Amino acid sequence: MLAIGSPAWFPEHMASSSSVEIPGQHPGENNVSNLAGRLNWLRAGVLGANDGIVSVAAVVVGVAGATTSVPAIATAGVAALVGGAISMALGEYVSVSSQSDSQRALIAKERQELIDSPEEELEELAGLFQAKGLSSETARLVAVELTETDALRAHLSEELGISEDEVVSAWHAAWVSALSFTLGAVLPLIAVLLPVGAARVPVTFGAVLIALAVTGALGAKVGGASVGRSVVRVVVGGAAALAFTFLIGTLLGASGLV
Known about the structure:
mainly alpha
C-alpha cells in the first residue's frame, strides 16, 4: 500500500536541496538533488493517497455489492482504513530503517577511511574523475579542491552516489505514509456512506475515478512525466479494481454465502 504533501511534513533536506542554485543552470531545470527530493515527495505523498483511495474503495464497493447494510459497509471501510494506515506506517518504517542503517554504515566507513588513509582516498577520488574522461592532471586538481572543501561529501557523492542529507528519518516516513493513506482513504468512505439506495455504488465509482485522475495528474507533474499517460494508467487500474471487487461482492451476495 502506498498524500499530497504540505510544508508540515516536507523533509528538511528536500527543501534545502531544491533551493541550491547552480551557476549556468537553465531556469526550471532540475539538478540531481532537486529531482531526488521531488521523486521522494511523489512516492511518499501522491502514491500513498492513491493507495488509500483504491484500497478502501475496493473494500467498500465489494461489500456494497454483497449487501445494502450501511453498518456493514461502514465497518468494512473503517477497518480497511485503519488497517491500511497501520500497514503503510509499519512497512515504510521497516523499509526506511533498513535503508537508513545501510547509508549510515557506508557514511561511517567512508569517514573512517578518510581518517586512516587520506592519500589513498585522494588518489581514489582522482581516479574516479579520470575514469569520467578528465586528464590525470585535471582529475587530481578537481579531487584536491573537492577534498579541501568537503572530503566526505565528495567521496560519498562520487563513490557511492549518496549524501549525508539524504538519510531520512524512519519515524518521519512512517507518519507521512500513514497520513497520506488516511487522507486518500477518507474520500471513498465518505462517498459510499453519504448517498442512499442504488446511487451508493455509482457515486463512489465517480468520486474515486475523479480523485485518481487528479492525483495521477499531480504525480505526473511532480515527476515530470506525461500527464495523459499517468491519468489513464491510474484511472483504468482503479476502475478495474472497483469493478472486480464489486463483481465478486455481488456474486457472493447472490450466492447466499454472506
